[in-house]
Amino acid sequence: MARILKNRHNSLNLLTRFLNSPTTRSLQTLAYEEVRSSSDRPYTSTAFVLHGLLGSGRNWRSFSRNLASTLSQPSASSEWRMVLVDLRNHGRSAEIEGLDPPHDIANAANDLANLVKAKGWDWPDVVIGHSMGGKVALHFAQSCARADYGQSVALPKQLWVLDSVPGKVKTENSEGEVEKVLQTLQSLPSSIPSRKWLVNHMMELGFSKSLSEWIGTNLKKSGERETWAFNLDGAVQMFNSYREMSYWPLLEHPPQGMEIAIVRAEKSDRWDPDVIQRLEGLANRQGDGSEGKVSVHVLPNAGHWVHVDNPKGLLEIVAPRIASV
């Protein structure tokens, strides 16, 4: 499989279109890029891919290329398009005017609906969300089911929630690494001397080399210095909303025809035993077809950064099920 992926990867055509023109800004839609295995065939199916806090769509390019390639084999009846979205306050969407507060999960999901409507697209068949993006995906599906975006909305057939606990973040778990990173970034000047300075500073404060270097990738040049590629204050507001939102009611009663697939990273530290037990109970229920279903998957040899720690394993979980859509 690895050899096939490599061969397909070499011939893959990355189609990138960013919404950053004045006309697009007036539509108040998100920045995005498209990944497809080939431009020779029109796409028949669409998956939205949503990044986590302080990330951007580009974090998911490599995985999305491989997923599109695997799903769009010459023998397959479907040609898949991956839409890698920059959520509000992140990536190129941080530069877009008109994405007004409150900066919360509900409005981040509403931005997705506005993107679909502004572009005249069909509604996505699949939505994949990592970490904070997982809750954005859950809220999007919940709002679709309630017809919050209009009567013509079509529900995603599959929702993939990658290492994102669906309930509220407990108070005793609120002093984790993410919170410490945010506190550190808020204490820094808005203009950073250099990427090297930032990485060294983060490591001196006790953060790992890999995390410090990843934070460094979120800098962009501004004259002789560096500034953040995200809106830090807005991102903090989104994270606070992420901690407060709970989607257990949606998981307990999934809309008919939808599968909500939860992927738990084996080495992730954010899963309490009671949450795992509750999810497994929902996944093991015998339904009568009047509602959708929940499935639970464990990604081995991976911490929270699932697409970096074990991208091959994640692909092997996700691709066969999406292929069945």
Would you write up a description of this structure?
With 325 residues, this protein is of the alpha/beta class. It has 2 domains: 253 residues, Alpha/Beta hydrolase fold, catalytic domain (Rossmann fold); 58 residues, no CATH class. It is built from 13 helices and 10 strands. The strands form 2 sheets. It has an 8-stranded mixed sheet with strand order 1-2-4-3-5-6-9-10, sandwiched between helices. α3 links the parallel β3 and β4. α1 packs across α3, α3 packs parallel to α13 and α4 packs across α5. It starts with a helix and ends with a helix. The N terminus is likely disordered.
CATH T-level topology of the largest domain: Rossmann fold
In total, the number of strands is 10
Alpha-carbon distance between the termini? 21 Å
Q: If strands are numbered along the chain, what order do they take across the biggest sheet?
A: 1-2-4-3-5-6-9-10
Count of DSSP-assigned helices = 13
CATH class of the largest domain: Alpha Beta
Write the H/E string, N to C: HEHEEHEHEHEHHHEEHHEHEHH
* Average predicted local confidence, pLDDT: 88
**What is the annotated CATH architecture of the largest domain?**
3-Layer(aba) Sandwich
Specify the biggest β-sheet: 8 strands, mixed
Kindly give the count of domains.
Answer: 2
Regions with pLDDT < 50 over 5+ consecutive residues? 1-26
Give me the secondary-structure category: alpha/beta
Strand content: 15-25%
Radius of gyration: 19 Å
Organism: Citrus clementina
Protein name: AB hydrolase-1 domain-containing protein
GO molecular function: hydrolase activity
Family: Belongs to the peptidase S33 family.
